[in-house]
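Reviewers asked in the last cycle whether our approach scales beyond single polypeptides. To address this, we selected a multi-component target totalling 703 residues and predicted its structure end to end. The input consisted of the following lines:
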Amino acid sequence: MNALNINPKENFINLYFDNLDLITENSTDILNKARQSALESFKILGFPNSKSEKYKYTKVEKLFLNEYEKYFTPKSITFNIDDIFRCDIPALDTHLALTLNGFYLSNPDLLVEIEKGVIIGSLSEAAKKYPNVVSKYYNTLADNDEDGLVALNTAFAQDGVFIYIPKGLVLEKPIQIINLMMGDENQLMHYRNLIIADENAQADIVICDHTLSPSEYLSNVVTEVFTNRGANLDVVSMQNQHNDSTQFTHLFGKQERDSVLSTNTVSLHGGIIRNNIHIVLNDENCENHTYGLALADRNQHIDMYSFIDHAKPNCNSNELYKALLDDQATGSFNGRILVRRDAQKTQAFQSNDNLLLTADAKMYTKPQLEIYADDVKCTHGATIGQLDMDAKFYMQSRGIGEREAKLLLMFGFAHDVIGHIKIAPLRERIDELVNKRLRGDLSRCNNCPMNCC
Amino acid sequence: MLTIKNLHASINGKEILKGVNLSIKPGEVHAIMGPNGSGKSTLGAVLAGRELFEVTQGEITFNGKDIFELSPEERSREGLFLSFQYPIEIPGVSMVNFMKTALNEHRKHKGLAPVTASDFLKLMRERKELVEIDSALTNRAVNEGFSGGEKKKNEIFQMAMLEPKLAILDETDSGLDIDALRIVANGVNKLKKPDNSTIVITHYQRLLDYIVPDFVHILYNGRIVKTGGKELALDLEEKGYDWIKNELEE
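The resulting structure, written as C-alpha cells, was:
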C-alpha cells in the first residue's frame, strides 16, 4: 500500500489532475466548465465524516479507500442485451434508456427525439446539441458547496441520462432508465442525470440500477430534476445492485408554481446505500411526495437523508419512508423539513415506520421539523417495531402457514409505500418484485430482472 | 367431533381454566355462557392454538386427532374455525389476497389444486351475498377501518369461505345492533349443515333466539358448572349469574 492511499481526499484530487485531459475530452463544455470550482469545493469539504450530523451513520471516507478502477473513457463492451438479461417479470411497455458503467449506451443513437420534442439520451451529447437548455439547468441545484460527495460528482461526471419533456406534453408511456454495471474489475464511477419537465408537461420515469458482474462497484450519482410551472413528474427508483456494491445517490428537485413532483425510492438489494433527496418548493401551490422503501437483510446498510425545503407559501409535502430490516442489517432515516418564514399555509407531513425482524437489526431515525412561519400545519412521527404477533396468529387461525403469514405481513408493510405508485401496471410489477425480494426469490446478478419495473 | 377432558390452562402463571370437560358431536350447537372473566374466551383461544395460554393439564381431541399436536394453521385446515371477539386489522394485506391464500392452503391440505382466479371471485361473490356483506369491504385491507359490525360480518364471511366442521363464535354478538345481529345469525344458520357443529360463546341470551343451541353450558370460574337445554339460557337471562354463584355456594 503506498502512502497516497492513506488520504483518500488527496487521492481523488490527484486522480482529477492526472486525468483531467481524458475527463474533459470524453465530455462536453458545459460539464467541463463546472469541474474546477467543484474540485475547489471538494478540496475544502473533503469526504463527509462522522462529525457531520447528516452522515452520522454512514462512514463515507473509508469506502473510497478501497481499490477501484476508474475509467474516463466509455469502455466498449459489445453485448446483446437479450443474451444477458432474463426477465423475471414480463416487460412493461416503456421508452428505454440504458447506461453502462456511467456512460449512456447508444441504442443505436446517443440522443433521440421520441415524440413531439421529448428528448431522451446522453447528457454529454445533449450538452452539445442543446447547449442552451442544458446550460440553463445543469449544476444549478447540486449543492457543491455543502456536500463533498456532490462536489466530487460535479468534478468527475462526464455523462449520464438527459430527459426533456417539452411544454404541455403529456407522455403516456413511462420512460425507463436502466443503469448497468458490468466488467471484470472493481470499479468506481460518477455519473450525472438531468431531467427537465417544462411548463405543464407530465411524465413518469422509472430508474433501475443493476449490477451484471460480481465485481465490486462504487457509484456516486447526482440527478437534478426540474418541474417547471404546472409540470407533473413521477420518478420511481429501483435499487437492485448486488451486496458488494456501494451506492451514493443525490437527487435534487426544484418545483415551480403549481407543479407536482413525486419520488419513490425502493431499495431492494445493495451492500451500502446512501440516498439523499433535496427538494425545494420554490413557488406557490406545489405538491411534493417523497416516498421510500428499504428492504435489507444480512449486512446491508441503507441510509436515507431527505430535505424538504418549503420556501414559498401554500405548498403541500407528504413524506413516507419505511424500512424492513432482517438479520444484522442497519438502516437510518434522517428527514428534515424546513418551513421558511414566508412559507405560510404550508402543509407538511412526514412519517417513518420501521420493522425489525431480528434483535440484531438496527434502525436509527431522526425526523426533524424546522418551522419559521406561523400559520402552517405540519406533523411528523417515527415508529420502530416488530411484526404484529396478533395479526400473524389471526392469519394462522385461517389456515395460513406461519412463514406465509409473516411474508404477508411484511408485504403489507411494504405495500403501503408501493401503493402510492400511480401507474397500475408499474405498481403491480413493483409489488411483485418486492414480493419476490421478501421470499428470497429475487436474483441479484446475471439472471437480472431488467424489465423489473 | 370434539372432546375436551379436564382442561387446565393458565396465562402468566394464573390459572384460567380449571378442569373443563366438554363433548360435541357432529351437527350439535353448544352455547357456552358465563360472566366476565369466567374463561369463555380463553377456551376459544386454546382451541384455536393461541400460544399466549399455557395448557397445564388435560387433553383435547378434534376429529380423533390430538389438537396439541397441531399448529393453529393445521387446526384450521382440519376444519376448526374461531370467529374472533376482536378481529385483527392487518394494514396492507388485502381481503382478496388474505382469503385466497387461506383458501388455497385449505385446498392443498385436501389435495386439491389452487383455486382459479375466476372461480375464486365467483365464490367470494356468492358467499358475500350469503352473509350480506358489503361488496366494497372485500376490496380493502383486512378489517382495516371496518366498523365493529363490519368486522363481525367479515368473520362470518371468512367462515362461509372456509366452511369449517367446527365453528367457535366468540362473542360474535357483542357490539352488534339488532339488525346486524340478525344478519350475522342468519349467516351462521345458512352455513349450518347436518354434520357440522358450532360453539356459541356469549354473555347474553339474545343471540340464542336466532342460533338455537342444543345444549347450554355455564362456565364459571374456569369450570362448566351447569349444563342444560336451550331453556337454561332463558333461566339465566331471568335470574342473572348471581343465581349460579349462590347455587354453587350452597
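The first strand of chain A starts at residue 95 and ends at 100. We regard this as preliminary and will revisit it once experimental data from Aim 1 are available.
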